[in-house]
Amino acid sequence: MATRPRGETQKQRMRRAGGEAPAGWVPFLRGHGRVTRALDEALRRDHGLTLNEYEVLLQLWLSDQGRMRRVDLAEHLLITQGGVTRLLAGLERDGLVERASSDEDARVVFACLTEAGAARVEAARRDHLAEVRRVFAERFSAAELAQLDELLSRLAA
To answer: 52-88 as b/e, with b when 16 or more CB fall inside 10 Å?
Structure first.
């Protein structure tokens, strides 16, 4: 067990260990965790999808022709190619996605949304957006949401 000076406060320990986190960092992490957990629970309960599976189906649904190269899908979702492969394996097993090879380049593999996958994401989308409003947007005014949009867009750039 690590020892620390007797009577040392949390603030003193943090200062000794490199300083405190910037203002807003810990609330951002906790808020993100709570919101994503609530969204994941609602999608699992109501539509039998994880939040990550929903995001895959949504990206395919939004794409031209309902298909994307697996490498592009991983980039859009900000996950590794291995992570997208694992997600797609489960969705393929459930008949929501299928794989297809490119006619032009045999090395290219597409993830394609099936009719069942399109139906599932369309059914989930309205409920998911309502849940996003409930657990996120309703906690802020319109002006605060506009400010959050501007501030958080810097992280996405």
So the answer is: bbbbbbbbbeebeebbbebeebbebbebeeeebeebb
DSSP 116: H
What residue spans define the domains of the chain?
27-156
Flag residues of the chain having pLDDT under 50: none
pLDDT at position 126 is 95
- Report the CATH fold assignment for 27-156: Arc Repressor Mutant, subunit A (1.10.10)
pLDDT over 90 percentage in the chain:
69
pLDDT of residue 15: 66
Residue 122: which of 74, 62, 69 has the closest Cα? 62
